[in-house]
Specification:
The complex is a heterodimer of chains A (790) and B (432). The model of chain A has no long low-confidence stretch (mean pLDDT 88). Chain A is an alpha/beta fold. In chain A, helix 9 runs parallel beside helix 17. Helices cover 35% and strands 25% of the residues of chain A. Helix content of chain B is 50%, strand content 14%. In chain B, helix 12 packs antiparallel against helix 13, helix 15 packs antiparallel against helix 16 and helix 17 packs antiparallel against helix 18. The chains are: A alpha/beta (790), B alpha+beta (432). Chains A and B meet through helix 17, helix 18, strand 21, strand 27 and strand 30 of A and helix 1, helix 2, helix 7 and helix 10 of B.
Chain lengths: 790, 432
């Protein structure tokens, strides 16, 4: 039975057919080819031929020309379109002609580096030239490092290693830096938010070192599809970059199904299990020998699904081993074996986390089942790209969970299949991040008077650091003045180094570190009594050692998770831009956020029932960050048939949904941004927890404000960056105000619950029973209005 | 907003617009970013409040094309005694071949009279390009005495001049002696030369790093091989009035910020002590190697280590003497090792009876420890005595008695067993 026949069967099934909420047919496409140009070295041409490559895809040809012309480029192509050849071809060709040329390849993870090295070495072997290709990362043995420094023609590493291991020791890498001609940055779209903001600074440091040795490398970036690849690339490398996005690789016809499990609890808007659905939908393919990959959202889900599928196959007297799990944490040997099994066709089903989403070569499969929206549209396309051979029909299925974004996509497939709404955004001049890297840069090479680094005044920052005894000004230079290695204190994947470590003491008082939580989120996730979830296993926090930044936990059998009840107020420090749009007053700028966690609620898994409360005593947390906000003016609210309490409920519900929609546009984690509803002038704030609904004065935390006494009553909704200093999200939200309100309206209006549920405006217990209705009226009213010029 | 205000506002918060309140949390976090262990400083810059360096340390400013450098020269007469040793004795001691101990061919012709003893004082131990060597001390034999010259940069802007002068000094010497210089001082100076855009002057210098021979000989005698430990345990050097070396970077930062030379002046003495100790440590290494019997006994471990070293270097007779002493002096578990090496030395010299006696002796010691004596005896009976039944007995006893035999060892024993059985049969046939 073929893919087509199985789908035919589904379409006539009473159970499955109603759940298939969308079916998109993606036409196959002929490849566009160009000849391998004559200037390519004969040895390389032969090597390509041996690997079956006799002509290039058009985008490979365009990349080759641009790179050979010395341009900085960003290549945007889907999974499995011969992306690596876009940079390997020009670099190896140059290398064959000019043996002294050197290159650095940067990949976001070690696993990807390994995989790329194998591929590159195979190509080099075929040219029979001694081109040294090495991975250099935390796993590289000490005694091999010296050889790599001397002989590494192409050094494959990750940004973290460049930051802590290579740049601070640049004098040991003279040959590399003197001859560095190419820097390849693959998986560019992963460098967004905090990580990307750090990355720009690491590249600033790299360019400074290259300047010192007299080299000026070209940057070659590759990205998955996002809305702004060129903008992101230009923000990362801080130079004009040429965009190459016309994919010339052929593809076969593909069906993309959206499967929304049936509603099982009308009141709460809960749907059937996505795991069960994934099992049922993938089994028929595996059973008929059609290679299938299943993506799950957590490691635990991978294990559960693998077991379900194996059991089912065994029940039908099949061979358990045709289905394998694959995730981070498996030993490399086991991983290689599974990868081989997939390529050879011995493994028919693989269940994985996003570990198999990027790069790793497993060949192409027939069917891809995505059990739960992976968090970004880009990831979803990359996962779906795993299915699709050069010819014949392939299939991808996205299964929705009872979560707002999953449901939004189920109801709005055009959002997914249209132009990508996701932006890779960074703020490399976040002061804390910038300050960290200025220290590293001063350690690497003394700053000269008049030099610049980033967009803030370097001179003032250096003076600040001199006051702190970090640098010393002597002659015309600023010298490092500490017995410390600054790169060790800076983690590229978080803002500050003050992370809390989570220690599991189930096995004894000595404990085992199982995770880290950054300082900002620690307050709302690590309090005594909280449930901390690691690799889908619940742990209960027994003791919080705030001073030493440690949380001690034990394994728990809790069937609930905890959600902090926190009071947040926001006061505006400075507005950067403002406009009237959609009947609202829209701004973005700098704010001070003060958060107090006062308690937590226990929420039952699956049903989301509230099963209890706890108290928390923690210091207030204050943060200076950037925010986007908009205010409903008096005149819009006055003629609506709702009282002030109802309007607050409506805006709280809208904020709940808008928070999710904003994270979709920003391509960020839901916790990277936070929301607050209150007054533009910081006179009052709305609290949205069951036991303390109402409006309060800021700071004092406890003092209620009479809602009727407020004049003018103009509620404001804040969405702020949940990192000190801000990470660059708010200008984007400001620009897309209308689109965001529009998507929020669609999310709420198309939700099938009656009066509000966790998939749209939030649980009615928190936002009130009329919230959904009022939120929709407010949004409708707002969207009737256009942009007010002037 | 100006950057400086922003930096300040990261640590300030306005409760209401315009009204500033201290946001102590972020301030503390920014402060913590400038860890670790900050030196308490109250004032910055010049004019110095305390005394300038030239007021506390007798030295002079030498000028170079890159500016001035403060240098201090101290000369010690040939009769000067550091610890228990006269400095000049190093020139007298017969040289045990340094290239054998260090496996560095270039040290074959080392001549301590043409050697520079070098030690740096630095702004930290973390390594990398942000660590400076603010003082370089070099010592050498001159005329009848020993002279130490120290180059010191008063702040970072004098580094280039200091390195220039160091490069000039190095030009006169072919050999260097350092302590841990291979991994520390020399790579650090190389980095400094590169950063100052000078060519690196170390490529043609053979560096005799005393840490390696010291480790080889004394690792099992001293609880660590830091220079201060060796000084105290072997060289009778007393450093009671010295400064703790981990504070040196802070003394220097303090001096650079305040110009007060009070603390940094003591580093000059510290650095000179290090250099003098290298001289007598080199003497100690070479005299020990030359005549191990002159060693004050340290439970015979040095005898054993040296015996092994001589054996590796092909000096069999010297090795024999050392190991014989070691066998007498050592206690468990080193005695076993001494016997093992001694038996091998005897074997190599063709003194079969003596080797065999040692092996027999080792069997009676503790038969389970290792297959070594069984295998050696089996070889002995098989090849030399040609007593196959005894050889077979040894092989079998090894398999039965010895604990934790490795897989390859077990295979080797089986192989040997089969061969001996074959030979035994053959021998029986031919006698029949």
């Amino acid at each position: 039975m073929s893919i087509g026949e199985i789908i035919k069967g589904w379409n006539s099934s009473k159970e499955i057919a109603p759940c298939i909420v969308h079916m998109e047919r993606l036409e196959g496409r002929e490849g566009r080819y160009v000849a391998i140009p004559d200037f390519i070295d004969k040895r390389l041409r032969e090597a390509l031929k041996k690997r079956g490559i006799e002509e290039l895809f058009s985008h490979q040809g365009v990349s080759l020309d641009a790179i050979c012309a010395g341009k900085d480029v960003v290549v945007v192509t889907p999974t499995a379109s011969g992306k690596t050849l876009c940079y390997n071809l020009p670099i190896l060709n140059d290398k064959l002609e000019n043996p002294s040329v050197r290159a650095i390849y940067l990949f976001p993870t070690k696993a990807l580096s390994q995989d790329q090295m194998v591929e590159l070495q195979e190509l080099i072997e075929a040219t029979a030239r001694p081109i040294g290709t090495f991975t250099y990362d935390g796993d590289t043995p000490q005694d091999a490092r010296r050889a790599i420094r001397a002989k590494g023609d192409i050094v494959i590493t990750n940004p973290d290693m460049l930051h802590t291991g290579i740049l601070p020791h640049h004098t040991k890498w003279i040959t590399l830096f003197q001859n560095l001609k190419y820097v390849v940055i693959d998986e560019l779209h992963t460098y967004r938010g905090v990580f990307g903001s750090h990355m720009t600074n690491v590249l600033r440091r790299l360019r400074r070192i290259c300047d010192f040795y007299g080299s000026r490398p070209q940057f070659i970036c590759c990205s998955a599809t996002i809305a702004n690849p060129r903008e992101l690339a230009e923000k990362l490398v801080e130079r004009p970059v040429e965009l190459i996005d016309q994919n010339g690789a052929p593809s076969s016809e593909k069906l993309f199904l959206f499967y929304n499990p049936p509603v099982v609890n009308e009141e709460l808007g809960i749907r059937g299990s996505h795991i069960g659905a994934a099992r049922n939908l993938s089994y028929p393919f595996i059973d008929r020998g059609i290679q299938t990959i299943v993506f799950a959202t957590s490691r635990l889900n991978v294990e559960v699904l693998t077991k379900y599928l194996k059991d089912r196959i065994e029940g039908e007297k099949g061979d358990r081993d045709i289905v394998r799990g694959y995730r981070g944490g498996y030993l490399p040997m086991a991983r290689r074996e599974i990868e081989k099994g997939l390529k050879k066709g011995e493994v028919l089903g693989v269940v994985t986390t996003n570990a198999l989403e990027l790069g790793i070569d497993i060949g192409r499969l027939d069917v891809c089942v995505i059990a739960g929206y992976p968090g970004t549209i880009t990831s979803t396309w990359q996962q779906a790209g795993r299915a699709g051979r050069r010819s014949g029909l392939s299939l991808a299925i996205l299964i929705g969970r009872s979560l707002p974004l999953d449901q939004f996509l189920m109801e709005n497939p055009d959002y997914f299949f249209g132009r990508s709404p996701e932006h890779g955004l960074i703020n490399p001049d976040n002061l804390l991040i910038l300050l960290s890297h200025i220290k590293c840069a001063a350690f690497e090479l003394p700053f000269k008077d008049g030099e610049s680094f980033g967009r803030e005044s370097l001179h003032e920052i250096l003076e600040y650091l001199e006051e702190k005894g970090v640098v010393h000004h002597a002659g015309d230079r600023w010298h490092w003045m500490q017995d410390a290695y600054p790169a060790d204190e800076i983690n590229l994947r978080s803002v500050s180094e003050e992370n809390f470590v989570v220690v599991d003491i189930t096995g004894g008082p000595k404990g085992k570190v199982i995770g880290e939580v950054d300082f900002t989120s620690a307050h709302t996730s690590l309090y005594e009594g909280a449930i901390y979830i690691s690799e889908s296993e619940p742990y209960q926090i027994e003791k919080l050692d705030y001073e030493n930044r440690k949380a001690y936990v034990t394994r728990s059998k809790a069937d609930y998770y905890t959600d902090a009840i926190s009071y947040t107020d926001v006061s505006i420090l400075e507005g950067f831009e403002e406009k009237r749009d959609c009947g609202t007053w829209v701004e973005h700028g700098e704010v001070a956020v003060s958060t107090k966690v006062v308690g937590f609620k226990k929420i039952k898994f699956y049903t989301s029932e509230n099963v209890g409360y706890g108290k928390v005593v923690l210091p207030d947390q204050q943060m200076h960050t950037t925010s986007y906000w908009f205010t409903f003016p008096k005149r819009i609210l006055e003629d609506m048939p709702f009282n002030r309490w109802e309007i607050i409920d409506g805006i709280l519900g809208m904020a709940y949904a808008l928070h999710y929609i904003a994270s979709l546009h920003l391509m960020c984690d839901i916790n990277d941004i936070q929301r607050s509803v209150g007054d533009r002038g910081a006179r009052w704030f709305a609290r949205f927890s069951r036991e303390s609904r109402g409006v309060y004065k800021p700071s004092t935390g406890m003092e209620k404000v009479s809602i009727d006494g407020i004049d003018p009553f103009e509620p404001t909704l804040f969405i702020y960056d949940n990192y000190p200093g801000g990470i660059g999200f708010s200008p984007q939200l400001f620009d897309e105000h209308r689109e965001i309100l529009d998507s929020t309206m669609r999310l709420i209006s198309r939700c099938r619950c009656r009066a509000g549920c966790p998939s749209c405006v939030g649980p009615t217990g928190e936002v009130g029973t009329k919230s959904k209705e009022i939120a929709l009226s407010l949004l409708e009213r707002a969207l009737e209005n256009g942009e007010d010029k002037g | 907003m100006k950057t400086k205000d922003k930096l300040a506002s990261l640590s300030l918060r306005r409760g209401e617009r315009g009204k500033r309140v201290v946001l102590s949390d972020l301030r503390r976090r920014l402060d913590r970013l400038s860890r670790p262990r900050r030196v308490e400083t109250t004032s910055y810059g010049y004019p110095p409040q305390g005394k300038a360096i030239e007021e506390l340390v007798g030295g002079q400013f030498l000028s170079t094309p890159f500016g001035e450098v403060f240098t201090v020269t101290e000369t010690y007469g040939s009769g000067y005694r550091h610890g228990g040793t006269l400095l000049g004795e190093l020139l007298e001691v017969p040289h045990y071949p340094a290239h054998l101990i260090t496996r560095d061919e270039r040290l074959k012709d080392i001549d301590f009279a043409r050697t520079l003893f070098l030690d740096t004082e630095t702004t930290g131990l973390s390594g990398g390009t942000g660590t400076y060597a603010f003082m370089v001390g070099v010592g050498s034999f001159q005329g009848g005495g020993f002279s130490v010259q120290q180059l010191f940069m008063r702040n970072h802007s004098e580094e280039k001049a200091m390195l220039f002068l160091l490069g000039e000094l190095l030009g006169h010497y072919d050999f260097l002696v350092t302590f841990n210089g291979k991994n520390y001082d020399i790579p650090l100076l190389e980095t400094r030369f590169i950063l100052s855009r000078f060519s690196v002057p170390f490529a043609d210098k053979a560096n005799y790093d005393l840490l390696f021979p010291s480790r080889k000989i004394w690792r099992r005698v001293c609880h660590n091989c830091r220079l201060v430990t060796l000084e105290a345990q072997l060289l009778d050097v007393d450093r009671e009035d010295d400064i703790p070396s981990e504070l040196i970077p802070y003394y220097y930062f303090d001096f650079v910020r305040t110009g007060d030379a009070g603390k940094i002046s003591r580093v000059f003495h510290h650095n000179r002590m290090d250099i003098l100790s290298m001289v007598i440590l080199a003497h100690r290494i070479h005299s020990t190697c030359h005549d191990p019997s002159a060693i004050h006994s340290r439970r015979g471990i040095e005898h054993m280590v040296l015996g092994k070293l001589f054996m590796e270097h092909g000096m069999i007779e010297k090795a024999t003497g050392c190991l014989e002493d070691a066998q007498k002096l050592c206690e468990e578990p080193f005695q076993w090792e001494a016997m093992r090496f001694l038996s091998l030395v005897y074997k190599r010299r063709g003194l079969w009876e003596r080797s065999a006696a040692l092996w027999e002796d080792m069997l009676s010691w503790d038969g389970r420890r290792s297959s070594f004596p069984y295998v050696e005896l089996a070889k002995h009976y098989e090849h030399r005595v040609k007593d196959y039944s005894k050889a077979l007995e040894m092989v079998r006893r090894a398999s039965e008695n010895v604990d934790c035999l490795g897989l390859s060892e077990r295979e080797a024993l089986l192989y040997r067993e089969r061969r001996v059985i074959r030979k035994e049969k053959k021998a029986r046939c031919s006698t029949l």
